[in-house]
Amino acid sequence: MVATGLVTWSSNGTPAGRASAPLHTPPSTTTSPPPARNQDDGRTFLTVGDLAPSLSIEHWVKGDEITSFGAGRLHVVVFWATWCQYSQAAISVLSDVQAAYANDGLTVVAVSDERLQKVVEFLSRGDWFTKAGFTIGTDPDLSTQRAFMDATGLGDIPAAFLIGRDGVIEWIGHPFYLKVVLPKVLDGSWDRAVARAKFEERMAIPRARYPWQQKMKEPFAKRDWETLLKLFDEAIAADPRPSDLKMQKFLLLIGEMGRPKQGYEYGRELIRDFWNDARLLNNLAWFVVDGEGVTERDHTFARKAAERAAELVEHNDPAVLDTLARVCFEQGDLALAVKWSRRAVEHSKPNDPFAEGIRAARDRYEAAAREKGIRPPKESPAP
Residue 73: pLDDT above 80? Predict the structure, then answer.
């Protein structure tokens, strides 16, 4: 299972977590802090403490149209995509949040930049439409994404914007943390100034990458790979923490660019250079076995990365163990796939949004083992 923290590319080619609290001060009397600026180019960024932009939704797929923010109501605007594993995992979290805080005046709206047909097709599969207990809209012209995501300097999805009763942004982050933030906003203990300072600190490096992301859009859209690779190398050389950019370059080489030989040569350099980075190694392995558009899946490469990541977390992290189990399964090593998937389930927390998927993977591997007549151990022994 992949960890968070990677820059992603959207479907349009953009280098992609009770009593009601008293109303906050209305916007007309709110003294806003100065806007955040990028030190490199002077660009003003949207941030916590700013008035939320308006929504510009082409199609409302589910729920009522949202025409404005504030007016005594709380809103959560979430940017997601049907192809994104973490977005899918966030659906249950967002549904829980919507149900838990509906009486407090909360409305959750999820926005995808994909075509209407793509979103409808996804929601029509299985029970996704029922699971998604919140408002959904599409933004294929990217107007809302530009107003929120690009304006903030964010590239990762899913991303949530919590908008207060006065229409001001209270918090920006991963949807999984909404259950921690919302109670504090409602009981009046939330400190918007502290939240702003923390967000600005977290966004320093992503915003420094913003000019590079803008330069990369055109060559990516045109499939001008040589120009794109050159820009990646320049961005990596200029970045103080380039691991995520290096990871993105690897994904493009084995995926969109269709250059597996070059990609895996580069990937082996990453394994060597980041031998003690469990998150990056886990991501390498997961994208090889599960990444969309990967032209050639080198399971031996993935096994080396996954085993080292598991070793670094002392075989106790469920996401890392889930990755290792999947690699073993793809290699036909069903006994080990069952062993590590069972251990992943054992280390999953009941409220972990990925616990359901980890259990489903275990059941799949156990069924495959039974079908092949393989009898895995009843318990997952420590390595």
Answer: yes
Query: Residue 314 corresponds to which amino acid?
Result: E
3-state secondary structure (DSSP) of residue 220: helix
DSSP annotation string for 192-212: HHHHHHHHHHHTHHHHHTHHH
Asked if 200 contacts 44 with a C-beta cutoff of 8 angstroms, the reply is: no
**Gap between the terminal Cα atoms of the chain:** 20
User: What are the structure tokens assigned to 107, written together?
Assistant: 């409305």
The DSSP 8-state label assigned to residue 274 in this structure reads T
In the three-class reduction of DSSP (H, G, I as helix; E, B as strand; rest coil), residue 357 is classed as helix
Residue 26 CA to residue 12 CA, distance in Å, equals: 37
> Can you tell me the mean pLDDT for 348-360?
79
pTM beyond 0.90: no
Q: What is the pLDDT of residue 300?
A: 97
DSSP 3-state assignment of 359?
helix
Domains within the chain, CATH numbers bracketed: 27-206 (3.40.30.10), 210-371 (1.25.40.10)
Q: Contact at 8 Å (CB) between 97 and 171?
A: no
Could you report the per-residue pLDDT of 297-347, keeping only the tens digit for each? 999 999 999 999 999 999 999 999 999 999 999 999 999 999 999 999 999
